[in-house]
Design brief:
seven-stranded mixed β-sheet, alpha/beta, globular
């Protein structure tokens, strides 16, 4: 199971997204926010069920809150790959300063003061590794019900596996670049665990950093995914991540790529987190990342006994959510 897998949404929303996306991107790049202008104000207004509230993101720099609007995955728009959101945020996704928020049980409204292109670029450039990019609102498949994946996980074919792997290439590349200096000269085994390993490609490529000493354990809801990943990983098990296979305090690095919108809901993400943290050794590292918006925040992670070292990754011309946490000694 992976964040970029097929969300539980109706075809009408997906079709509208594909048709509208090129125009939205062009408007963002030239700073045309007229679609959000109402009576002299600028207002993002998204219905929770038929709209796309998860497009809206926020971040804080120097005590000032900024608003952005996420674009959709190229793989979804142009290559018909299931899944909607892309983790990547570019300078043109930044809109301006937050003016106010209003929510109801059916919709959200976010007022903002637009910035000019120079200010938007400067604000984007100021995003640091410890800037928390948050998505306060998530898509709903019906009133009061967040979009989630299928209860038994997703099936896989060779074509689907290639699509999933391509959509996550930037995350795998960043992860390898980040950890390679730390792991290239290992002299003893370490255990790396992915509780929603999907095709196993992510963990397999990570192990290539030092295959002699990196031991891999995968787990997934889908038995078909488990069978597929078994060719790439040393251990793969079928099961729910709330019941992790590794014993407590045995994992050195934990990758969570499924505590994201359209995969689980926020309540389930918070329920699952402590069980996964329990598998980490003292000082072990957890990475929280995904193709769709991460559902947990710094407070959730600290409450679970983690010290948050990083919240955002920068690569090429974009940034994306990438939480790196260490298990606190007292846990």
């Amino acid at each position: 199971m992976q964040p970029e897998n097929e969300p539980n949404e109706g075809p009408s929303r997906a079709r509208r997204s594909i048709l509208a996306e090129p125009r939205i991107r062009a408007e963002l790049k030239r700073g045309d926010f007229s679609r959000w202008q109402q009576l002299g104000r600028y207002l993002l207004h998204e219905d929770l069920v038929v709209g796309e509230p998860a497009r809206i993101f926020m971040f804080q720099i120097d005590q000032r809150w900024y608003v952005g609007y996420k674009t959709l995955s190229d793989y979804f728009v142009y290559q018909d790959v299931p899944g909607v959101f892309c983790s990547r945020i570019y300078w043109h996704n930044v809109l301006g300063l937050l003016d106010g928020i209003r929510t109801s049980d059916t919709d959200v409204r976010v007022a903002f003061h637009p910035l000019d292109p120079h200010e938007r670029r400067a604000t984007f450039d100021a995003i640091s590794p410890t800037t928390s990019i948050t998505h306060p609102f998530v898509n709903h498949h019906e009133e009061g019900q967040e979009d989630t994946g299928t209860p038994a996980g997703w099936p896989v074919t060779e074509d689907r596996a290639r699509s999933l792997n391509a959509a996550e290439e930037h995350i795998r590349r960043y992860t390898s670049d980040l950890f390679r200096p730390m792991l290239a000269d290992l002299s003893e085994n370490i255990t790396v665990y992915d509780p929603a390993c999907s095709t196993g490609h992510f963990l397999s490529q990570f192990a290539d950093i030092n295959p002699q000493y990196i031991r891999t354990i995968g787990q997934d809801l889908s038995q078909q995914m488990v069978d597929y990943a078994a060719e790439r990983l040393e251990q793969v098990h079928q099961g729910d991540a709330e019941m992790p296979v590794p014993l407590p305090s045995t994992v050195d690095i934990l990758f969570c790529r499924f505590l994201n919108s359209e995969v689980v809901n926020t309540r389930r993400a918070r329920e699952i987190l402590p069980h996964l943290v329990a598998t980490l050794r003292q000082g072990g590292v957890m990475v929280l990342v995904g193709h769709s918006p991460v559902l947990l925040d710094v407070l959730d992670l600290e409450t679970a006994g983690l010290t948050v070292l990083q919240t955002t990754a920068r690569q090429d011309r974009y940034v994306f959510q990438y939480y790196v946490c260490r298990k606190s000694p007292q846990c």
